[in-house]
Design a protein that fits this description.
This protein starts with 10 loop residues before the first helix and ends with a helix. The protein is 40% helix and 7% strand. It has a five-stranded mixed β-sheet with strand order 1-2-3-4-5. The protein has helices at residues 11-21, 28-37, 52-61, 66-83, 96-103, 135-149, 153-158, 171-174, 179-190, 207-216, 222-225, 235-239, 262-269, 316-322; strands spanning 108-109, 119-124, 160-165, 197-203, 228-230. It is of the alpha/beta class. The longest helix has 18 residues, at 66-83. The protein is built from 14 helices and five strands. The protein is globular.
């Protein structure tokens, strides 16, 4: 078990943590132990990591509000072990489906942080070829990437900015983004991952993406809504949030074009994977098909629900993995 041996934060970052996150260095160990003491209240969850280095991520994500940090800690495992466990089977960069999404730049991670110390992630939606893998593999690749990046204490304090480039995104691609998938993404990032998301920026979004965003707005918390910016084709407004000096030319920046597979190769070199102690759900009789990976297109005459034609909560990820 990793133990708390003192913060590795730079002095200026520690000052920011104190001012913005209510982090009191002298109280860190007591705050971490307070979270650990609450684990007994959730016997339904297997908290696979209870070490100091891990728990402090949730405290920072919830500005050292002990109760809110524990709620996120519990939801993190609930999401992965109870609600959508099929997402986290073979949760590794070398998994064939996830590997392809990573190599297609889901996400691209810029080498440099911005002027506020934030890590910049770019998602170029035109790179998604729907016949090769489904959207859930992009979501899995994003979650795995965030897990890798959040290990850095500086990133825990400064947070992330995500830029989604919708250039050349087609209506055919959009038709594969169901409301269920969008709700899954919102829940996974908004409530179930210990990170600070300082901004999510859409550029060159078509009208049907704006319409989809309008539908999704009710599922967003007020604080999250304030962090989402729709720039259209006006990159100047993007540059008021993220300076051109660290952006690639594709985003109107001053740096060369990105190497979309660079970060994926880093994950592979590290053999990065996380084991949440989950396995693929067992099939529930003939009406609930066995989970198969690498299926982007449903087979003809296949039944995706129970005998009443409905998907119950336990089977919903099996359904999404087969037909997005």
């Amino acid at each position: 078990m990793a133990s708390w041996s003192g913060s590795t934060l730079l002095p200026e970052t520690e000052d920011k943590a104190i001012k913005e996150l209510n982090e009191i260095p002298e109280n860190r160990e007591n705050d971490i132990q307070a979270i650990r003491d609450m684990i007994i209240t959730r016997p339904d969850i297997h908290f696979t990591r209870t070490d100091d280095v891990f728990i402090i991520r949730f405290l920072r994500a919830r500005k050292f509000d002990i109760l809110e940090a524990f709620k996120m800690y519990a939801k993190y495992y609930e999401f992965r072990q109870l609600k959508f466990r099929a997402l986290f089977v073979h949760f590794m960069a070398s998994d064939p489906d996830m590997y392809q999404a990573l190599m297609d730049g889901f996400p691209v991670v810029l080498d440099d942080t911005d002027h506020l110390g934030r890590k910049i992630l770019i998602l170029n939606t035109a790179n998604w070829e729907v016949w090769r893998y489904q959207y859930v593999q992009i979501f899995r690749a994003l979650l795995l990437s965030l897990e890798y990046l959040i290990q850095n204490e500086e990133t825990q304090v400064h947070g992330f900015v995500i830029v989604v480039d919708w250039t050349a995104f087609t209506f055919k691609q959009a038709s594969r983004l169901s409301l269920s998938l969008m709700k899954l993404t919102i829940e996974g990032l908004q409530d179930c991952f210990p990170a600070r998301f300082s901004g999510i920026h859409f550029i060159n979004q078509p009208w049907y993406i704006e319409a989809a965003f309008t539908i999704c707005r009710p599922f967003l918390k007020p604080a999250t809504k304030e962090k989402i910016f729709l720039h259209g084709n006006n990159l100047t407004t993007l540059h008021t949030h993220i300076h051109k000096e660290i952006l690639p030319t594709e985003l109107g920046g001053l740096l060369p074009a990105v190497n979309i597979g660079k970060f994926a190769r880093e994950l592979l070199r590290q053999n990065f994977e996380i084991n949440f102690g989950v396995s693929a759900p067992e099939p529930r009789g003939q009406s609930s098909p066995t989970l198969t990976r690498s299926m982007s297109v449903p087979l003809p005459n296949e039944n995706y629900g129970n005998q009443n034609g409905q998907c119950d909560k336990q089977d919903n990820l099996e359904f999404l993995l087969k037909f997005d």
